[in-house]
UniProtKB/TrEMBL annotation:
Regions of compositional bias (Basic and acidic residues) in chain numbering: 11-36
Keyword Coiled coil applies: yes
GO CC terms of this entry: ribonucleoprotein complex
Name this protein carries in UniProt: L1 transposable element RRM domain-containing protein
Pfam families documented for this protein: Tnp_22_trimer (PF17489), Transposase_22 (PF02994)
GO molecular function per UniProt: single-stranded RNA binding
Lineage, opening ranks: Eukaryota, Metazoa, Chordata, Craniata, Vertebrata
Residue ranges annotated for the L1 transposable element RRM domain, each copy included: 150-231
Sorted UniProt keywords: Coiled coil
Positions in coiled-coil regions: 78-154
The L1 transposable element trimerization domain, residue ranges: 105-146
Length: 243
């Protein structure tokens, strides 16, 4: 029994002596109490070993608590970082949505501006076409007016109201007959229309209004004017001129 006890003590001493080589030697040299343990009897040796184990357990518990505290702190930090990252992600998503909305509004504005520009171009084209039509109509009216006026002669100096009894057309034919008695059928004139112009009386104007005679043919006008040049047409100072 004593032999077994001694063997067990020797094995434990051997276990203590065989830590990791260099570190163990260094530790043994720097800790003289360790050397004293080897010289203890079995009971004291066991007591010392139990004490050492208790110290190791306390150190392990302390280190474990420190490690647990460290891990908990790191975990809280990671959790906090994750929260911040999530908030940043949400912020980025919100910014992206705002940018998308701004881009959409910009696209809509560009489309509206493009439509307005197209509308302005169409309006300008329509305005140009309208001006062209107006000019064309003015030219047409001018041509019509010139065509109408080409057939007209104007009687000047007939007192106001004189044409009401006989009519302006009959009065014109009477003047032709008086001034060209020998022309006969050569001066047969067809009058389409004869009226005072303008159609209202200007009280500030003392001379009578003229009577434009709208003839059926341009040749009739030329005959009258040619005859007027050869013989001055007059009837109480009435005159005939081209319109």
């Amino acid at each position: 029994m004593q032999r077994h006890k001694s063997t067990t003590s020797s094995d434990m001493k051997k276990y203590i002596k065989s830590p990791e080589q260099k570190e163990n030697n260094k530790y043994t040299e720097n800790n003289p109490k360790e050397n004293e343990i080897y010289n203890l009897n079995d009971d004291d040796f066991k007591t010392a070993i139990i004490k050492i184990l208790n110290e190791l357990r306390e150190n392990s518990d302390r280190q474990l608590n420190e490690f647990r505290s460290y891990v908990t702190k790191e975990f809280d930090t990671i959790k906090k970082n994750q929260t911040e990252i999530l908030e940043m992600k949400n912020t980025i998503e919100e910014i992206k949505k705002n940018l998308d909305a701004l881009n959409s509004r910009a696209d809509n504005m560009e489309e509206r501006i493009s439509n307005l520009e197209d509308g302005n171009i169409e309006m300008l084209q329509a305005e140009e076409e309208r001006e062209v039509r107006l000019k064309r109509n003015e030219e047409t009216l001018r041509e019509l007016s010139d065509t109408i006026r080409r057939c007209n002669v104007r009687i000047i100096g007939i007192p106001e109201g004189e044409e009401k009894e006989k009519g302006a057309e009959s009065l014109f034919k009477e003047i032709m007959a008086e001034n060209f008695p020998n022309r006969g059928k050569k001066l047969e004139i067809q009058v389409k229309e004869a009226n005072r112009s303008p159609n209202y009386i200007n009280v500030k104007r003392h001379s009578p209004r003229h009577i434009p005679e709208k003839l059926a043919k341009v040749n009739d006008k030329e005959k009258i004017l040619r005859a007027a040049r050869q013989k001055k047409i007059q009837r109480n100072h009435y005159q005939i001129s081209a319109e």
